[in-house]
Amino acid sequence: MAEKDQQVHPLAPANKQPRSDEESAGLQAKELKRKKRIKYAVYIAAFAVFQTAIILVFALTVMRVKNPKVRIGRITIETMETNNTGAAAAASFDLKFIAQVTVKNTNFGHYRFDHSTMSFLYDGVIVGEAIIPKARARARSTKKLDVTVEVNSRALTNTAPLGSELSSNILTLNSQAKLKGKVELMKVIKRNKSPEMNCTLTFNVSTRNLQDLNCK
Predict the structure, then answer these.
(1) What is the pLDDT of residue 16?
(2) Which residue spans traverse the membrane (predicted)?
(3) Residues 132, 145: contact at Cβ < 8 Å?
(4) How far apart, in whole angstroms, are the C-alpha atoms of residue 132 and residue 100?
(5) DSSP letters along 90-105, please?
(6) What span, in angstroms and rounded, lies between the C-alpha atoms of 137 and 144?
(7) Domain limits at 97?
(8) Can you give the pTM of this predicted structure?
(9) 19: helix, coil or strand?
């Protein structure tokens, strides 16, 4: 009996050949490029956030324009005459002093203001005025101006409250002023600003000195 044909079994597929060095190098290069792109994207995002923060801080600090503050900083009395020896209705006063007006500018630009009038009142009646000259308060600084002031009681129609106050060796005056000017930022941006002053001056008649000064 003839031998049975020998069965032929297909050979198992041979193991795949390992990638060549060129293929491995190409994959590594692509991976490096991908990581670099991610790194650059992170850098760009971080820079954008940083730049936005800088612009925000710049807008909230440098570009923000605040109202300067005008105050009376100091009083130097030259002459003071008061009369309360007779009836209260005959009470009077006559003062001459130098008021140091300060204009505090906290902005990052100069503040230029025009001349203005500073009024002094007793019991709501104007008893004297003085001129604050026009000037410039530099950025982040305080401008000081010496203003000569003369006040007296001639405009008072009722001096009874004055007589009562002088009997306590006290004389109280109120000072008011309003400046009009502009804050200039980088010589491009200009903002109108009009700070106001309201000060209360209390003089000690017996010592001929300023006893208290309160401004707001």
Answers:
(1) 52
(2) 40-63
(3) yes
(4) 10
(5) G-EEEEEEEEEEEEEE
(6) 9
(7) 69-215
(8) 0.74
(9) coil
Decide if 173 contacts 102 (C-beta within 8 A): no
Alpha helices (H) along 91-209: 160-166
Other beta carbons within 10 angstroms of residue 191's beta carbon come to 17
pLDDT of residue 31: 80
pLDDT at 38: 84
Task: Burial-class residue 161 by CB neighbours within 10 Å (0-12, 13-18, 19+).
Answer: middle
Q: Are 109 and 186 in contact (CB under 8 A)?
A: yes
Collapsing DSSP to helix, strand or coil, 190 comes out as: strand
Residue 200 and residue 118 share a domain: yes
Q: Which amino acid is at 122?
A: Y
Same domain, 46 and 103: no
> Longest Cα pair distance anywhere in the chain, in angstroms?
166
Q: pLDDT 10s digit of each residue in the chain, 216 long?
A: 445 555 555 555 555 555 566 777 777 778 888 888 887 788 788 877 777 666 556 555 557 899 999 999 999 999 999 998 766 568 999 999 999 999 999 999 999 999 999 999 999 999 999 999 999 999 999 999 999 999 999 999 999 999 999 999 999 999 999 999 999 998 888 999 999 999 999 999 999 999 999 998
**Number of domains comprising the chain:** 2
Residues 137 and 95 in one domain: yes
Q: Residues of 74-110 as b/e, b for ≥16 C-beta within 10 angstroms? A: ebeeeebebebeeebeebbbbbebebebbbbbbbbbb
Contact assessment for residue 208 and residue 96, using Cβ atoms and an 8 Å cutoff = no
What three-state secondary structure class fits 120?
A: strand
